[in-house]
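Fold sample X.
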Amino acid sequence: MPGAYDALSARILERIGFQAIQASGYGIAASMLGIPDIGILSMADMLDQTRRMVQAVNVPIMADGDTGFGNAVNTYYTVRAFEAAGCGGINLEDQTFPKRCGHLDNKTVISMEEMVGKVEAAAAARRDPDFIINARTDAIAVYGVDEAIRRGNAYARAGADLIFVEAPQQKEDIERVIKAIEAPVSINLADGGKTPAVSIPELQKMGAARVSVPVATIFSAAKGMIDALTLLYEKRETPSAVRPDCMLTFSAFTDLVGLPQYQDLSNVYVKS
């Protein structure tokens, strides 16, 4: 599940063929506010942007619910809101507020008991039993692998469908949490992050139930814009005139955003 940060990136992922998408809080913070993922985005910000993604595609999108944006009662409301927006599931993490990207240093986590209450509230809040509660633990960075396993099993007993173990730093740790947690386990591959670059087929062989790749879209978009716009700045010509392969053509982009379908609708319904 690659991470999308807006409706366009979600559309691109769907067109490529991915069958599910993760809403990337890291990417949404960067694209909406131009800042790191350090807990500044509000629930309303995240909800509005995720709703736009849901409306743009026909594949399931898993929301990024951060810490539930408060206590267990806030978490209950958060799940209700994202499910009503059309999401297929939600990530909820056990960091303290304000949270930060799982691959940054100096994280802190709430008690296991408090997070269990949040997971129970989340499970009770959903109306559709197929809406996925993906409970994330950042405990490895604070207390180690044993505590992440203990928490993962507790969150599964509390009603989580999927356990997201963030930032294991060794391949052996990935294998260990997958085997020791008595629920499906999700692994996050953040380009340049703390988790080793294990291939997706290898993770599948280990038994990982889901692999998220959250920042590939925003990192590649930023690199593409820097490259193309540096040409504009230095050469004083449109980037496509200098290097035609550095950007989509006008016709390719209008096709990507669905202009032909809107023209078809116009031909059928717009009466002169």
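Fold sample Y, listed below.
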Amino acid sequence: MKGLVLSLFPGIGLLDMAFEEAGFCVVRGPDLLWGGDVRNFHPPAGRFDGVIGGPPCQAHSTLAALVNRNGLAVKPDRIPEFERCVSEAAPEWFLMENVRGAPLPVVPGYYVDAHLIRDAWCGGETLRQRRFSFGSRDKRRLIFDWPALYRPDPEPAALASGSAWDYVHKRPAGTKSRETFKNHKRLQGLPADFDLPPFTVAAKVQAVGNGVPLPMGRAVAAAVVRALESNSCEVAA
């Protein structure tokens, strides 16, 4: 086992799945999807080796201004809650996933090494781009080992559902189908038999589309393992 990891904003646990495959033991924190609220959560200090998570990104998305102009609600910025939980947990390291426009996390005592990554670079199917910010006390850097070959013509990313994004993308509400869910699973690198039985089809599409593509998660988890096992502790310029 590589260590005990706290997952914040876990959703259906796609990033968690990648870290579990890499040998970490992942403990999931509260999530609105399951009726929890991170604002009421206070992790114990010194219990977790690492903290991972992707706070809701709508507040920093390029679509946020358009959504606001149309009178629709954008989810609040929860990066400060991620920073607070990391500070309280005091782990050896943390990893935050978010969109390109999001600010880097700031936690006293940690240095941050940030990387913009596309799913296709990791062997995935899509153009999805995310920033991963790796924080450590001793200036470690993420170490990636990109596949020799990757798809030269990636597809558009799987999209999350929701009234705001449906409006922006001019998609009628409630039009999600089983075929859409099947395609989202493929785009996110999930096996064909992956399912969320308690969810409606629309909720399944939203939950899968909100997640980190599994190939991307695997590449990042492997990079974290290399960083932790490396003797080099030099932060990016």
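Sample Y note: The CA atoms of residues 110 and 225 lie 18 Å apart.
Also: Helices lie at 14-21, 64-69, 79-89, 163-168, 178-187, 201-210, 214-229.
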